[in-house]
Amino acid sequence: MSGSVIYSAIDLTDGFYQILMRESDIPLTAVSTPSGVLWECLVMPQGLKNAPATFNRMVSHVLRPLRAFAPSYFDDIFVHSRAEDGLSAVDVHLRHLRKVFEKMRENKLYANLKKCVFCAPEIPVLGCYVSKSGVRADPEKISSICSWPTPKNQTELRQWLGLANYLHKYTKDYAGLTQPMSSLLKKDVTWNWRPEHQDAFDAVKKSLASAPVLMLPDTSRPFHVVTVSAS
Fold this sequence. Notes:
alpha+beta, Alpha-Beta Plaits, 4-stranded antiparallel sheet, 3-stranded antiparallel sheet, 6 helices, Rev_trsase/Diguanyl_cyclase, RT_dom, Reverse transcriptase domain-containing protein, DNA/RNA_pol_sf
């Protein structure tokens, strides 16, 4: 999505139900009700072990020719465009949307218009927001983390860390900052919230309150990937 300036997010309605069951597999979905009526699913139901992978594979296969500008994740399709070939970004984006809709029509995939966003400068993508500036954290999630009261026990601390961990990439040295609090979650450790724990708690909040916008990598230029090897 790097370099794009206009975006659309398409939500597929009732994703699993858009896949027909193979006729020979329909009896495998049979459910007996208390009234004695036997129900069988004609479309892929919720709850099948391989349903998520099957649906994601189908959508990825359908959109594979368009993946340069229309990546997908399960029931979400993200269309992004920039000006090219003498056309404005809007004109290119409309052309991209038309190609996506044609693929959807060919494969009988239906969108939930209430959840779709079209031709916007920014769209929600998997819990964050993407724009030409980069990737920023969801303000509602940051607000929830920053307004959380001081934990009074391990359960409350674990809940807060679970939420904060989701946005760890926006905090430099997140593991180091949270280490004092993480030590309280070890087995057989007696709960004792001390000043160093409060300092760590406040430091994470402060960092997320001013969370940076993460830049998308420009694959046309050299860039460095920094990794940590941990066992």
